[in-house]
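User: Small ask, check this?
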Amino acid sequence: MMGDSERRILSTNMNENLGDSNSSSILKVYGSYGIVGAVIVAIAIPILLSILMGKRKSKQRGVPVQVGGEVGLAMRNARSVKLVEVPWEGATTMAALFEQSCKKHSQERCIGMRKVTSKEFVTANDGRKFEKLHLGEYQWETYGQVFDRACNFASGIVKLGHDVDTRAAIFADTRPEWLIAFQGCFRQNITVVTIYASLGDDAVIHSLNETQVPTLVCESKQLKKLAAISSSLKTIRNVIYFDDEETSSSSSVNQDMDNWRISSFSEVEKLGRDSSVQPRLPIKTDIAVIMYTSGSTGLPKGVMITHGNIVATAAAVMTVIPRMGSKDVYLAYLPLAHVFELAAETVMLTAGAAIGYGSTLTLTDTSNKIKKGTKGDASALKPTLMAAVPAILDRVRDGVLKKVDEKGGFSKKLFNIAYSRRLAAIGGSWFGAWGLETFLWDIIIFKKIRSILGGEIRFMLCGGAPLSGDTQRFINICMGAPIGQGYGLTETCAGATFSESDDTSVGRVGPPLPCCYIKLVSWEEGGYAITDKPMPRGEILVGGCSVTAGYFNNESKTKEVYKVDERDMHWFYTGDIGRFHPDGCLEIIDRKKDIVKLQHGEYISLGKVEAALMSSDYVENIMIYADPFHNFCVGLVVPSHQVLEGWAQEAGIKYKDFSELCDKPEAIKEVQRSLSKEAKAAKLDKFEIPAKIKLLPEPWTPESGLVTAALKLKREQLKNKFKNELQELYE
């Protein structure tokens, strides 16, 4: 198993990995005459054509619609009068969609994985050892083969003794067998309970006991963890582990699981292949998934997602991403236990695209676990489609800019010219839409940057948290592909809004998906009203086909945030605050739970302040805290090791280790100065700027329980862990 010292979280890992990938050769100095000529062409022609052709007209993307329920302003997608429920006739459930897609694309590539060809351990300067892998090329299975494996697993789990009227759970990282087990369960109408591999013991015990799961599917590396908590798991009878190089470890823990039947995934498949069972297929209102969120407060809640919910979201997203089909290749590495990745992979299965599996630790050529000189997942796969959370894209941007600064001189000037011209083109000129300028700058500058993620990306999906406008534009320009920023929740099966491929704006999350309506209702306490000018504002409600059935075994919480109107439309009250732009697109501007009223009556939005201050180069993570009995806020900051240590070296600051550096008054003052600069740029009020900060040397990880798997802050856990530090900041 991987030790704690090796277990990097997404944000830290991506900062090191993507930032350094191939970036040392991003800006090669070409012959001076060729560069000067190309620059003149790239600047002069677009200016001339922009003058001649003018700006493109804005497009109406969302339109008002009359709906029931609480008084508010509702929008629907402009392209779809009726709500979209299915991608095609007959695909009303996940089982039906999967079977029909597998038959349609039976000979096409479906899922691929890389095998380890060799491994070695290297020792870092601080004495820590890290495993480095050499991975082979992707090995593929067709849609027809994957369908057969899912059917075999379905029969095998029944033959194993699983009662089809009970649930099965998957507790594992993202990999092909995860998806096969998931689809296999639906062949017998078995509800799947999904659990993050990074959840702590208490949350795992709670999730499995609450849903009374008798069969658990996991990785072999989880067996020891399960053995340690086996006495607390009341209903588990069967454990199925994925076959891998750690399989041999299973025998050492069997004695701790005397009451459980331990079987390998391949054994279950063989059992089903030798003795098939007639399928028992679901209907669209059946519960497909109980998805346990890694929620920001307390124990995780299980969201009940129907087959109709998942299918509707997939059908809606299919209308947004242009020209999707079997020629597309998708890089899968985010947690499948998160609704964002689950929805994305369902979309790929619907389109008949190829799904290549990787991991955050092997994603690029310089990722932590990739042996130097060998290919990371992106280089080997060359994906055309990819999903990312904002933390990853922020690290890509920071890493590229760092390398540009290191190059300096003419190379840096050339990059800045290229970036500014591409930015001008995206601003709306006919020439920018036509693509000649994109072609020119790709040859001169951006081709090397694009190679970080394989060089073939044509569309990126982003979700899970707000993406800053600066990062969205930067990635859009450097990767040469649109970023579809989506907004949704587990409770809406990821389906709410999605920015369209031809929308060049940033900072917004697009119009409603065709599977749902978006409604704003006034929140007078927070000062948001649908009558506000120039844009209506209010709490965001989502209604329609993607709204889930509620929380498992939690009727009171379900009634609190799920409502059914007089037309039998289900609405989910998100707690987020948004505003509609004139073209019908939504922008997220606040969150009800993040607003605190200070001593003198001012309201401070913690999330808004954090988003602004994250722009500081010194900030790896930040939490703003506001005590209502004071008139100022304070901050907990996890600083970037690289940036803060670089500053300390230049400033001549002496220190033994990073923890000591974080306590240095000079370091605190320097980070505070940077935060004030970013606050001023974001036009924050004085009371929104943290008066005092504490620098914390250790990163906040999902394993530590301080952030969710999607890297959102767990405020209550952070406040509890650092209550002494917060108290000291107010003294």
About this structure: The domain at 598-729 is CATH 3.30.300.30 (GMP Synthetase; Chain A, domain 3).
